[in-house]
Description:
It is a single chain. This protein is of the alpha/beta class. It contains 12 helices and 8 strands. Strands 1-2-4-3-5-6-7-8 form an 8-stranded mixed sheet, with helices on both faces. Helix 1 packs across helix 8 and helix 5 packs antiparallel against helix 9. The longest helix is centred in the middle third of the chain and has 15 residues. The termini are far apart.
Amino acid sequence: MKAIVIIALLHIGLASVNAQNTKDKEMTISYIKTNVGEIAVYQKIVKGTTPVIFLHGVYYDSNLWNYYTSRITDRTVITVDMPHHGKSKSIEKKKWIMDDCASMLLEILDTLNYDKVYGIGHSWGSMTLLRAAVKSPEKFKSLGFCNMPVSKGKFGKKMQFGFVHTLLPFRSYYAKQVSKSMFSKESRKEKPELAEYLELSLARLSKKEIRRTDKAVISKVDDGNQYVSKLKTPALALKGDKDYVKTLKKIETTIVSGKHTSPLEQPEEVMKFIEQVFQLQ
């Protein structure tokens, strides 16, 4: 019975613990060829509006944003399965880096023929938006960075993840350790289904896909502070009060209860944050 419940959570995409999380039936999928490979892109189109695009963090997929895409009905919404995640499994470039993710996003926007969008990201998704906006600021109206790391990957981080990856054959144990980084102790106690959802998300990734993503996004990532200093697009940030990422000095930051996955831990607060991003000029 427990397995059935967990599978159901993965199917609908958990963004809170109520029935509002059912994936929006109006979202349509297309596959877009990019520099890293074929990327799954979902859209719910409202003609004549400036779209908002959502990018998820590591180990999740586009379902991370289901709660938000169902709530936003007055504009086009776009979600993306990042490389190796969700249905974006046809990744041809073996040694992609964060800069490739930024180029990938810009290629997606060009293919969809959107001149300008709002961007909302979680962790890796925020890192991608930041770099893309520095490359092509004219493409973005405003940005919302949730739980965005900016520190450069260093040798110590590489060694740390080298050790952590030895636990990958023990997937359930590995997921439990990851959940401690993603969710606060209070969240894990009050909403144990969050950890179960993360475990099922991880189960959809191979060991090779996890190692490749961790290398590009965490252990060998370049310094994000250089992009923050160059950013011209209006932006806001949000992070958990127990999050391991640093508070950005140059971007107004909202602090909410929780750790590193605020879109799941505090959906109502993140929804308010998104609405504030829409108001930026």
